[in-house]
Amino acid sequence: MSPSKRNKAFALFFIFLTLAIPFAMIYYLSTDYYKERYQKLRKNPNEASREIRSRIPADRLVLKKNEKLLVKRTCLVFKGVEKKAILLDLYLLDLDPEQPYLIKLSTQDADKELIIGGNKFKLISVNNQYLNLQLLSSTETP
């Protein structure tokens, strides 16, 4: 097969594929099988909203970069890793919920217990996007 005929064949195949996929999706969504499958979930809301148990233990915390996470009466915001230091913003909700306190933790101290805002943590893992901590203990303010 010559190169020009091969290019034409690939072009026709590509055009056929780009037309066939949307039509196949529309056909599938308009069939009774699709409607019956999801009609059962609409009729039985208890099944759709049942509680699924997490495989992550309750004392394990995963902080995503720049998202707040409430831990007892504190709020933690993971800011990332910079020059072998873990950066966190700590909000003490009892003292001043609007004021962040910057905390720098050395990655070399990762094997030690970390005390942040009255809570004891153990560092499980860290990268620039996620911080994984285990909550060891916590003190409650009266």
Give a nutshell description of this structure.
By secondary structure, the protein is of the alpha+beta class.
Can you walk through the features of this model?
The chain is 31% helix and 38% strand. It has 142 residues and is α+β, with helices and mostly antiparallel strands. The protein has two domains: 3-48; 60-138, no CATH class. Strands 1-8-7-6 form a four-stranded antiparallel β-sheet, with no helix packed on it. A four-stranded antiparallel β-sheet has the order 2-3-4-5, with no helix packed on it. Strand 7 and strand 8 (130-138) form a beta hairpin.
DSSP strand content: 35-45%
Helix/strand/pairing category? alpha+beta
Query: How many domains make up the coordinates?
Result: 2
Spatial separation of the terminal alpha carbons: 83 Å
Count the helices. How many? Answer: 3
Q: Let me know the number of strands.
A: 8
Gyration radius from CA atoms, angstroms: 26 Å
The geometry reads as elongated
State the order of secondary-structure elements, H for helix, E for strand.
HHHEEEEEEEE
Any low-confidence stretches, pLDDT <50, length ≥5? none
Fraction in helix? 25-40%
Oligomeric category: single chain
Main sheet properties: 4 strands, antiparallel
Global mean pLDDT: 79
Q: Strands across the major sheet, in which order?
A: 1-8-7-6
